[in-house]
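Annual report, structural modelling task.

Input specification for the uridine 5'-triphosphate complex:
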Amino acid sequence: MNSDNVLDFLRENGQEALAWYIETREPEVRSSLIDALAGTDQRILDHIRGASEAASDKLSGSSDASDASDTSDGRIAPLGALTLTAIEAQKEAFAHTGIEAIREGKLALLLLAGGQGTRLGHDSPKGCFNMGLTKELYIFELLIEHLKEVVREAGSYIHLYVMTSVENNSATSQFFKDKNYFGYSPEHIHFFIQEQNPVLSLDGHFLLSSSEQLCYSPNGNGGWALSLEKAGLIEEMKGFGVEWINVFSVDNVLQRMADPVFFGAILTQGLTSGAKVVMKNAPDEKVGAMCTLDGKPYIIEYYELSEEMSRQTNEDGSLAYGYGVILNYIFRLDKLIASNAKAMPLHAVKKAVPYMELDESGGLKSVVPDSPNAIKFETLALDLVHEMDDCLVFEVDREKEFAPVKNKTGIDSVDTARELLKKNGYAL
Ligand code: UTP
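The model returned the following structure:
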């Protein structure tokens, strides 16, 4: 869609009110709204047209890219892991290989901090959340402290890329600055903003966030490959001599990044990617499980797993789809670049999104919904895994490495994460 046919597109797709609203704005606002709409991903336009109805809540990539999430024709099979016991037996050798490569600057880190954290509902970036009870202990601080342990061992800093969103970028970088980068080297911390997509109402209409702007949301936890490339940062990394990238989420307060044992195991086995996993605590735990789809690594979401498959066991009685991913992956950079990151599937996710309602007279009213009213379009990190030739499934102890902060209370919450921090000896 180009700027010339934006208004026609809106009228042809039941959005006459928005077309009229835009037409009657001052020239500057009009052209900025039109330009924003003209840049909409073709797949979102197709969604609006209803052309991809069949894909229900998942939209495929470009026509020549396979939609990894469409498992209907694909053959799903279990994928074994390097278990805790197997890792223990080779730990020293793996650690030695990993730390050498880290010392040589071959690994960069990518912290995914562009999410909106709607479930936590904190009014600043999730990483600025204070896990402490009697003292300050921020999520970003915990992550940097873990990283500093590896830095001390390697004797050299590791480049850390922090992906933020349009919404939280300045608050995030200012927080790091105010806290003196928690003792990390500022020259090795690089902030960049991830791309975003327009948000639609459930009936496929664009939404306004203010009188002059559309509603946008960051393009998902898989958006980093494209965003890094667009920002020229892949080239920068290569210039630093980086060959591998370790991607991890902000919301696991026990997250162990740049783990020399994990990295060393991938290098030793000559593989192109790896995923840290934990043994699921129940067959129906709401985490994606490692498996293969048509022989290639794949992560099946908990809602895609049939009841029967979720309970299927291996010969030793363990769950066949029992290795849950914790959003900590290592990718070989050249394989990632060669992968089809640009055509990654776009997933439609229903969320509660505040917006400005447009009435018939062109007036705007603020709406703050308490249940899902809108569709966000996201790419997912797990789809990148499917682009790789292979993936080392690397088991970690969930009590020691998995304390997600997703909700305020209940499962995967601030409360459960605090308990796990205490169990691991942290003074809160
Ligand atoms: P989640 O998928 O849990 O999303 O993020 P979220 O936005 O943080 O939380 P909810 O769903 O709104 O409650 C997993 C990881 O991916 C990052 C998050 O910051 C977190 O580290 N993420 C997510 C991004 O960096 N960008 C996104 O667009 C989405």
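The two ends are 53 Å apart (CA to CA).
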